């Protein structure tokens, strides 16, 4: 057996199965490659179906008025439509890797959007006073930093409550975040008594304009990829998710780390809410319903294990792309939404079944 | 523990006695713009008459709504107003209220048993078959005026399980078949965006990526029309070249119309429906006879008459 815990070896042994040494023969190809292969397969399937069924190309440009090789508009919307839930999925990935779950992110999107938009309103709309004004004139036309900070504060607070409940009272994450999911949705409806909040300032509207959601998503994905792979924080996430007792024994502050993970996850949900409300120029109490499940599904499709300890930000990003390709693909084929949901369900379950199968095979080998 | 239970029991008792003599309202959901205006209409009318109302959120759950109605009956309300979650699940609600002798008023969504309601029950709403037909007919007129004979359109549907979405979409085809439309309408594609602005924005962008030429978008509600408009704007499409119509005349939609983007919407008088429902409930509770079906008309809103509607929603 090789000596433990030295630089590179540490990186190879602290992942997942808690193996004691690094054995090159036992190393399988990274699960992200499988997800990537699935993504490419799905794209090819749509390309083929497109040629057969609607006589058009999914990827390549066939429009006469546009002069590009690829259908760039379609490639853009594929990412754009999943970027916001993708931001949430980045946080959810970290939570799941530590062996937890976060059901509250969709509701946190709701309450954060409502609160944030209240601080981002303009006083005058088309020459009339803002018909959706929440606060008095003194609170109108604030600099964009105010709603941003308020929104982030809401997310940090909600996440801290989640984390503290889980870490200190030791109740299961499922219950703690379920409670937050219901309570935060109640807050979102209560905030303006169910009324939508609209008409933000131009600087606030700029946050989610055009491809900005994608840019924000990509930057955050890169940032958290580095954090999860290069920092102590990331290693501790994997360690706690693989074996919480062992992590505690080896001196990791599990309690503190959990609070941090849930706080980060909710802060990301809050960021998603800011981008979402800015992109749509409105905030509504019903915003973000089911986002938590979409985010979890993206992570799971991307190879993040609900048992904890396994998965990566790259995998989740690929999972998000699969979602985007499916939505655009079905619209492209002019198939109704019913089928879209059916296929989404099949893919989520299929991904986990495949992953499970791969796991047992590896366990035996 | 015993003490806690006792206290809880008393609290429950007190809240029930406070509720008696009041009117119970069960709304399909609290986070829907339109239903919020309607809810505010009920509240405003109640405040004006010095009545107490208790408004519950059924959260789009048929079973929860029936429970709420039974709870209202148990706590001795004088009348109940129901905004049904599912219009085909109203018979049980009618039966429960009728058995207890409590008057019941359905609001906004037409119950399936509307023709067999007992004497102390009523229905206040707008006739959904008018809703999008008014908008589409106007759209037809504008296309004809612009010299078109044949147009291609996209249709955005609300939630597929929702009756209003089904009806508003059906209305479009009814107008096409009725011969009241001077231009020939070809529907390129019809998809759901679940009433949501964000989903509509994504859907429109997906449609734009196919590059098909089109003359307009017909949306089941304003939120989706606004989502479509935002996508069109982002793609740099000339607002004058497409006609977009919605339904509801929300504040956001009216602001968009003022800015020269949204072309047509249809106003459904939510506040009048809410107020009307409360009036009917009060009269029924007092034993007076009321009209069993009260229809509040839909009204067409265009840039020409927008000023009349700015303060209505």
Word description of this protein:
The complex is a heterodimer of chains A (365) and B (313). Helix content of chain A is 66%, strand content 2%. Chain A has helices at 8-13, 31-54, 72-97, 105-118, 145-169, 173-191, 202-205, 212-230, 232-242, 244-249, 254-280, 291-301, 313-332, 337-364, and strands at 124-125, 128-129, 197-198, 282-283. In chain A, a hairpin with a 2-residue loop joins β1 (124-125) and β2 (128-129). The radius of gyration of chain A is 22 Å and the shape is globular. By secondary structure, chain B is α/β, with parallel strands linked by helices. The longest helix of chain B has 18 residues, at 2-19. The A-B interface holds A 56, 62-66, 71, 73-74, 76-77, 80-81, 84, 125-126, 128, 131-132, 188-189, 193-196, 198-199, 209-210, 276, 279-282, 284-287, 327-328, 331-332, 334, 336-338 and B 29-33, 35-36, 39-40, 57, 160, 189, 191-192, 197-198, 201-203, 205-211, 226-227, 230, 234-235, 250-252, 255, 258-259, 310.
Q: Which range does the strand content of chain B fall in?
A: 15-25%
Can you tell me the overall shape of chain A? Answer: globular
Counting H and I runs of at least 4 residues, what is the number of helices of chain A? 14
Major β-sheet profile of chain A? 2 strands, antiparallel
Instruction: Give me the count of strands of chain B.
Output: 12
Residues in helices of chain A, as a percent range: 55-70%
Global geometry of chain B: elongated
Question: Considering DSSP H and I runs of 4 or more, what fraction of the residues of chain B is helical?
Answer: 40-55%
Strand content of chain A: under 5%
Structural class category of chain B: alpha/beta
SSE string of chain A, helix = H, strand = E? HHHHEEHHEHHHHHEHHH
Number of strands of chain A: 4
Distance between the termini of chain A: 19 Å
- Identify low-pLDDT runs of chain B: 9-20
- What does the average pLDDT of chain A come to? 88
- Across the major sheet of chain A, the strand order is 1-2
Average predicted confidence as pLDDT of chain B: 88
